[in-house]
Amino acid sequence: MIQKSNIARRRKAAQAEGGIEYKNKRDELIRVAAVLFKEKGYQATTLNEIAAAAGMDRASIYYYVDNKEEFFREAIKGVLDANTTEAERLMRMRSLNPKEKLEQLVTLLMRSYDENYPYMYLYIQEEMHAVAEQESVWAQEMVRQTQRFEKVVITLFKKGIEDGLFRSDISPGLAANALFGMFNWSHRWYKPGTGKSAEAVAQAFCKIFFDGFEQR
Question: Structure pTM?
Answer without folding.
Answer: 0.75
